[in-house]
Amino acid sequence: MPENKSARADRILDAAADLLLRWGYRRVTIDEVAKRAGVGKGTVYLHWRSREALLMAVLLRESVGMFTAVAEHVRRDPDQVRLSALMSALYLESSARPLVLALYTKDTETLGTLVQTSSGTQVQGVKLVTFEEYYHLLREHGLLRADVSNDEVSYACAAVLFGFFTMSQLAPAEFAQPREQEAGMLAGVLRARFEPPRPSKRAAEALAPKIVSLLEDLATQYHELIYRPDISEGG
Amino acid sequence: MPENKSARADRILDAAADLLLRWGYRRVTIDEVAKRAGVGKGTVYLHWRSREALLMAVLLRESVGMFTAVAEHVRRDPDQVRLSALMSALYLESSARPLVLALYTKDTETLGTLVQTSSGTQVQGVKLVTFEEYYHLLREHGLLRADVSNDEVSYACAAVLFGFFTMSQLAPAEFAQPREQEAGMLAGVLRARFEPPRPSKRAAEALAPKIVSLLEDLATQYHELIYRPDISEGG
DNA sequence: GTGTGACCAGTTTTGAAATCTGGTCACAGG
DNA sequence: CCTGTGACCAGATTTCAAAACTGGTCACAC
C-alpha cells in the first residue's frame, strides 16, 4: 500500500467526474470508474456505500471548490460580501464548473435523480440553512433594504439566480452574452432591489470574516460528507 | 352543414386542449380528438395541415387569451403599461393558464417538441419582436432608466421572468407563495432595476393605447396562425 | 489487514412481432 | 360540384421474452 487513501479517493472521484460529464448519470458504471482509477471494483465500495453516494461525492467536491472560491473572493475584498457581489461571484464560479451548473439547471441527463434522493435533499437543506443565515447576517449588518422582508429576499433572490442560470443555458444563440456581462446584469438586479442605496463599507468589512467562516464551515461539512459518507451507519 | 366552420374549429381545439392537459403531448391522438369533437378524422385535416399544427393552434389560442387579458388590464388602467406592472400581469395571467405556463416552464411532457419546431420558433420570433418593440416604446416614453441599455432590459427581464416561472413550478413546498405575492415580488424586482425612480403618469397614459394595439396586433397575428395555418403553402 | 474480482440477483437492453397512429383519398351524401 | 368521412397504408411505437449488463457482496489472495 504505497499510497495515501485520500489520494486514492480523489483519483476515484476524478474518474467518476470525468465519466459523469462525458456520458451522463445513467451511463456511469462502477466497473468503468474503478478501471479508470486503477483500482478494483470492491475498493470503490471501501470508500462509498453505494453508487449514488459516490456520484453525490463528486458533486459535493465540485461544490466545495465553488464555495471555497467564493470565500476567497470575499476574503480578498470584503466589499464582495454584499448580496449582489456574492451572488454574482457564485454565478460566475458555478458557470465555470459544469457539474455545479448542471446542479443549478436541474440537468437530469447529467445528474439523474441525485438531487431528489434523501441524501440529496439533506445536502440541499444544509446549503439552504447557510443561505438563510447569510441573509440574516446581511440584515443584521444593515446590508439589506429595510422595506424588503427576509422571506422575500430568500424567494425572489433564488428566483432571479435561477432565472439567470436557465437563461444562459437555453437562451437562443442571438441572446447569448459573455458570462461576465450576465453576472453584471444579475448583480445589477439584486443591488437595485435588495441592497440599501448607500451600503456601508464598514459594515461589509465587519461582516466579511463571518461570511468567510460560514462558507468555510459549509465547505467543511461537505468535505465530511464526501470522504465519510457512512458516518451515520446502522440507522 | 348546419354549423359554423369557426365553431367547429373551436370545438376541435377544445377537445385537443383537454386531451393535451389530461394526457400530455405524446398521448394526444387525432382519432381521439376527432371523436371528442364529434367529427370525422379527415375533417381535422380540413382545418390543420398536421397534428403538430393542430397542437400549436391550441397553444396559440391560449396565448391569445392571455395577451388579450393583459391588454384589457392596460386598457382599464394605463399605469399598468409600466414594465413591472405589465410583466406582473403577464405572470399572473400565464399562471392561470396551464398550457401557457407549460410554455414558459418548458414542460416537455405537456408540450413535447412543439416549441422547437420551425413554426414554433417562428411564433416565438413574432412574440420576441413584439417585446422588443414594447421595450423600445417604453424607453421612448421615458419609462425605462436611462442607465440600463435595451439589450440589458431584454436579457435580464427575460431571465427574471423565467426565474419566477420555474421557481413557482419546482420550488420545494416550504417555499411556496401565493401567486399574487410572487407577482408582487416580480414587480418589485423589475421596478427597482428597470424603471425610473418617479415614472411619469402622463407618459404611461400616452403609451398605454399604443401597447394595447401592439398586444392586439399580436393577438390578431396569432389568430391568423390558428385558423389559417396553411396560408403560406407550396414553399 | 487490505484489496480484489468472480459471482449473484435484479434490472436494463435488445430485437422482432404485434399494435397503433398520422396522414391520404376514393367515395358517400347532398 | 362540394363537403365530410373513415378504411387504408407506411412508418412509428409498443410489447415481451431472451440475452446482456451492473450494483453490490464476500471468500480469498497477498
UniProtKB/TrEMBL annotation, chains A, B:
<feature type="DNA-binding region" description="H-T-H motif">
    <location>
        <begin position="29"/>
        <end position="48"/>
    </location>
</feature>
<dbReference type="InterPro" id="IPR009057">
    <property type="entry name" value="Homeodomain-like_sf"/>
</dbReference>
<protein>
    <submittedName>
        <fullName>TetR family transcriptional regulator</fullName>
    </submittedName>
</protein>
<keyword id="KW-0238">DNA-binding</keyword>
<keyword id="KW-0805">Transcription regulation</keyword>
<dbReference type="InterPro" id="IPR050109">
    <property type="entry name" value="HTH-type_TetR-like_transc_reg"/>
</dbReference>
<dbReference type="GO" id="GO:0000976">
    <property type="term" value="F:transcription cis-regulatory region binding"/>
</dbReference>
<dbReference type="Pfam" id="PF00440">
    <property type="entry name" value="TetR_N"/>
</dbReference>
<feature type="domain" description="HTH tetR-type">
    <location>
        <begin position="6"/>
        <end position="66"/>
    </location>
</feature>
<dbReference type="GO" id="GO:0003700">
    <property type="term" value="F:DNA-binding transcription factor activity"/>
</dbReference>
<keyword id="KW-0804">Transcription</keyword>
<dbReference type="InterPro" id="IPR001647">
    <property type="entry name" value="HTH_TetR"/>
</dbReference>
